[in-house]
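Case study 2.
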Amino acid sequence: MNNYVILNPQWLADIMSSLITTKHGLIKKGILNHSDLLQIWKDEKKYPKQIHSLLIQLMEKFEILIPITHLSSESEIYCGKSIVPALLSKDDEPNIIKNWNGEQKIEIFRIYEFKFLPTQVFPRILGCLLPIFGVGNCKYWRDGIVIVEKKSRALVQFYSSNQIMIQICGKELLNIFRKIFNCLQIVLKEWRGKSLEYHISIICPECLELNRKDKMESSCFTFEECMDAFSKTKGDGNGICEFQCQKINSGNVIPLKLVVPELASSRINQIT
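Prediction:
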């Protein structure tokens, strides 16, 4: 016989309140260590220990929690970590993104523009990026994340109500790009069982370097234009193929390796 759980809306609200309340102070910077649940849910009558695993599953189902670590068995539930989206700070954003690139030249700049972008998408992206790069190598807030890996840096940001912006700089930027690209593919293509619709706009590094006033408002080219240019060239994927910027008064010629590294590099592997 199947076991069924009847959800009482007030009970679910109480579970959420037990995490969101500031009384316990155990959730730091929006990240919950599951080991702290033993303290948060210490009331055995209200939160019996044998149903803690079920409570975590319910909170993940209703996106109160976004898992960072994916555990293989119920016995490991207190070893995991999760993001609590409601507790991610927005106050840290101005300080984090101020000179985030250390004045390095930004080589990759692209904007993903969506017909509709649910607010819970970005916490999902954080939940994918943090375990890959490590919490200690990232500074994050409710709508963005700055990643530092070796000699490269990246900013991934919920830029407006329907846009996600990516900027990357550094000497080994293709390595960091591959990981970010794979994470976005996973989240955007599997959002609640269907792919989110979007198109990609790209701003070339030379136009960014010139510090044009319109650099944030108008792109140099679209991803589709880059694909078309790439398909017509005979380059070997190592930066020989080039694409000319289409902005007025700009004659910048950019290696396709920097514009569309996911096409120009055969080393990008899709994560299933």
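The two ends are 34 Å apart (CA to CA).
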